Amino acid sequence: MSFYEAQDLFFSYQEKPILQGVNLSVEEGCIVSLLGENGTGKSTLMKLFLGLLTPEKGTIVLKNRALQSYSIKERALHVSYVPQSTQIAFAFCAFDIVIMGRIAFESWFKKASQADIQIAQSSMERLGIAHLAKRTFQTLSGGEKQLVLIARSLAQGAKILVMDEPVSGLDYGNQLRLLETILHLSKEGYTFLKSTHFPEHALMLGGYTYALKNGHVLAHGETSETITQELINELYNTDIALKQTTCGYPVCVPAFVQMKE
Predict the structure, then answer these.
(1) Residue pair 79/50 in contact by the 8 Å Cβ criterion
(2) 55, 10 Cβ separation under 8 angstroms
(3) What are the angstrom distances between the C-alpha of 190 and each of 30, 86, 126, 228, 232?
(4) Are 162 and 80 in contact, with CB atoms under 8 Å apart?
(5) Cβ proximity of 254 and 239 under 8 Å
(6) CA torsion, points 230, 234, 236, 239, in degrees to nearest 10?
(7) pTM of the model
(8) 199 near 243, Cβ under 8 Å?
(9) Contact 31, 194 (CB under 8 A)
(10) For the sheet containing 31-35, what is the strand order?
């Protein structure tokens, strides 16, 4: 049995089927990418993995135990959510956001211990963002916010990070920096389940890919073998060619670009 997995999941919204018999396995320390059009069930699947939704049929298993049998606090010790963006109503500084990850271990009303403070500081240093500690969260760039949210997950102590389109809204440089952070953390033993609209990003990170279409798993396996020209065209109803660069890295070339050659 896998470290973290979905077994025969079914889920609907107001009788509209979203997921139909989905099986998905996440191995410890691996990066798993979810590909698919909007509305195909990627976000729903991640909410099920987080325990925020309950499947109509099937189950999520974490470490040989049904996820629904974990308390909220127990889940927080294993799994953390890194959203696309976070709206903060108050003028919290970046350090305040990171130390909130320690709430999994303490009461909302208990003052942070020195150990909590040290863990939060260490998490920020680990990602190279200690200099942002006193900056108001809302004044940070999109990339900086994402790194702060990842630091919060590290402070929480969770080894599994669920990320919903983490590069959404980021400029090109911050996209690459965030992908590099994910790759480095995976080499340290962190596990990632993330959705993306960019097949190239999944190819950059490697690991495993699951392609969803109409609530079903269309294809899955090692990313380098699963993401093919045929899969991308079927998944997104596009006309692209997957071409190898001189360094051996594949890139998607749309038909309208090919016409210029």
Answers:
(1) yes
(2) yes
(3) 7, 22, 14, 27, 28
(4) yes
(5) yes
(6) 50
(7) 0.90
(8) no
(9) yes
(10) 79-82, 160-163, 191-195, 31-35, 208-213, 216-222
CA distance 119 to 234: 45
Amino acid symbol at 52: L
Q: Which structure tokens are listed for 142?
A: 């999109």
Six-digit token pair at 225?
């073998």
Would you give per-residue pLDDT tens digits along the chain (261 residues)? 568 999 999 999 988 999 999 999 999 999 999 999 998 999 999 999 999 999 999 999 999 999 999 998 899 999 999 987 666 667 889 999 999 998 766 665 567 789 999 999 999 999 999 999 999 999 998 889 989 999 999 999 999 999 998 888 888 988 898 899 999 999 999 999 999 999 999 999 999 999 999 999 999 999 999 999 999 999 999 998 888 877 777 888 888 886 555
Return the structure tokens found at 106.
């303490």
Rg (CA), the chain: 19
- Asked if residues 178 and 146 have their Cβ atoms less than 8 Å apart, the reply is yes
Q: Spell out the alpha helix ranges (H) of the chain.
A: 42-50, 72-76, 94-99, 114-126, 142-156, 172-187, 199-205, 223-226, 229-236, 255-258
CB 101 within 8 A of CB 155: yes
